[in-house]
From TrEMBL:
GO CC terms, sorted: membrane
Protein name per its UniProtKB record: Rhomboid family GlyGly-CTERM serine protease
Entry membrane topology: Multi-pass membrane protein
Pfam families: Rhomboid
Primary location group: membrane
Species per Swiss-Prot/TrEMBL record: Marinimicrobium koreense
Residue intervals passing through the bilayer: 38-58, 65-84, 153-172
Location(s) in or outside the cell: Membrane
Record-level GO BP terms: proteolysis
UniProt xrefs under InterPro entries: Peptidase_S54_rhomboid_dom (IPR022764), Rhom-like_SP_proteobac (IPR023826), Rhomboid-like_sf (IPR035952)
Length: 177
């Protein structure tokens, strides 16, 4: 992501989620748009959160499971933006998928840290509801574009489904092994 950020003038037009380009068949943008960012602050914020989510998740799941979770979050957010946010012509950033990783992670690790996981879920839920509230200001003084808050919602829903699925599977398996 740092290399893509250093080459932003080249990578942004080639990789960002561009509604018209995706509609014309450039489907890779549903994935690649997450790896580029609108400026160094956006990149640093998302890179730090990505590393934190990885650290949390790698405590409890393997790379073999983390990869599909990440891919599902990336694709789900990209498809959600493309299908449901017709007013959004461009999208870049990892925050939507990060919300998915975070929600899945706290649900998956719920048995180990129930109070911390419950608190984290409550904070994320509050944040998502607040962002969806009419009149919420999506501008951010350090970002050159408004925050795409619906990406956070899509990611959180995907993470919720994934996390609950893993939690239920592990619970069922522990009772039947």
């Amino acid at each position: 992501m740092v290399l893509l950020g250093a080459l932003q003038s080249v990578t942004e037009p080639l990789l960002e989620l561009n509604r018209d380009a995706v509609s014309q068949g450039e489907l890779w943008r549903l994935l690649t748009g997450h790896w580029i960012h609108y400026g160094p602050y956006h990149l640093a914020m998302n890179l730090g959160a990505f590393m934190l989510c990885g650290w949390i998740l790698f405590q409890d799941i393997s790379l073999r499971h983390y990869g599909p979770l990440l891919l599902t979050c990336l694709l789900g957010v990209g498809i959600g933006i493309q299908w449901f946010n017709t007013d959004l012509d461009y999208y870049a950033g990892l925050s939507g998928a990060l919300h998915g990783l975070l929600v899945a992670g706290v649900i998956i690790t719920f048995k180990q840290t129930p109070w911390m996981s419950g608190l984290a879920l409550a904070v994320v839920a509050y944040k998502i509801v607040q962002e969806q509230w009419p009149g919420y200001d999506t501008s951010h003084e350090l970002l050159p574009v408004p925050v795409a808050v619906d990406a956070h919602l899509y990611g959180a829903v995907i993470g919720l489904v994934w996390g609950v699925g893993v939690f239920l599977w592990r619970t069922w398996r522990s009772r039947h092994v």
